[in-house]
Amino acid sequence: MNKTILVLGGYGSTGRPLCDLLLQETDVTVVVAGRNVANGKALVAELEGKFGGGRATAVTVDAASHSSLEAAFAGVDMVVVASSTVQYTEQVARACLAAGVDYFDVNFSEEKTAVLRQLAPEIEAAGLCFVTDGGFHPGVPAALVRYAGSRFDQLQQANVASVIKIDWRHYDVGVDTAEEMAGEFMGMDSSYYRNGRWHKSPMMGMGGLLTLDYGEPFGKQYAVPMGLAEMRRLPELIPSLQDTGFFVGGFNWFTDWLIMPIVAVGVKIHVGWKRPLGRLLLWSLHTFSRPPYGTVLRLEARGKRAGSAYSLDLQLTHEDGYVFTAIPAVACLLQLVDGTVRQPGLHWQALIVEPTRFLADMARMGIDIQENETMVEAVMNPI
Length: 383
Prior knowledge:
This protein is of the alpha/beta class. It has helices at 15-25, 37-51, 66-73, 89-99, 110-125, 141-151, 175-183, 234-237, 253-269, 274-288, 321-337, 349-352, 355-364; strands at residues 4-8, 29-34, 56-60, 78-81, 102-105, 129-132, 154-165, 191-194, 197-200, 210-213, 220-225, 243-249, 294-305, 308-318, 345-348, 368-376. α3 packs across α4 (89-99), α7 (175-183) crosses α10 (274-288) and α11 packs across α13 (355-364).
């Protein structure tokens, strides 16, 4: 039976490519949902012109209104949250529970995760599948480590790092998204796994600084540890693992060294400062970001197979950070829609997907994936 997926924030920077890819890759019907129905109808017209078939519609939804959510969710099979509405996570999740529909999000928020964890018993009892932390990061790093784990008899070291260089002036990033970005610093985790135990880096992650060479055009870039919930289960899933973590690269010198420390301190002093600090962060990104532009995710793994030591490097690249968020989300949705990995309960994208198909689908949808495996004389020392 043809399924219907409602995309909350479907006409936004991430929602647009996500809706496009869903229509391209599946036979589902897509409902573009948000407060501005004119924007939704404009996107539907664009999608219908491209794909035809009457598989896209638009609906007005206010995430702050339970009755609005309840009316919109009636008759759909899954809700995908691609909007900056983490403050309404509980309302959206409860509306999904009431409507008996599955849930997927591409938001990164400790507040959101805490709400979903509390609802986990109800989600499982209802037989629904909720998948959180979808997209690029979070969403891909732990899946890359799991993929590496399948390639070794003993995976010992697996670090993932990103470069995100975006020309922010070309994107319509609203104040709500800017506020959400600033809010991420409130509970930012700087944990990484080294020598068989978790560490938390002080000074905004500078204690765990990692430098990787991404090749042209980015060359060597530094990255600081950024704890992701999906990474926490990896030592349990791969007992041989001694070193792992996700490390995030910088935006530009001004934002990294001046604005981000101000934002990190400011949001912890007063929660009401999130909005003006978000505006400050967005201004610095608009003003100081310079080419080359692009988004890269790199895995460097070391381990043993058949008694010999090997290194495995994976590098995923796309020029558009928002498309790079949408493609992994759709790659996961493909496995959920066809029932391959769907199971009741609360799950993380990086931990529920089958990694090999996940990577293959991402490559088919436009992410450049370069893989290099080398036999080495000895496993590298932990960083």
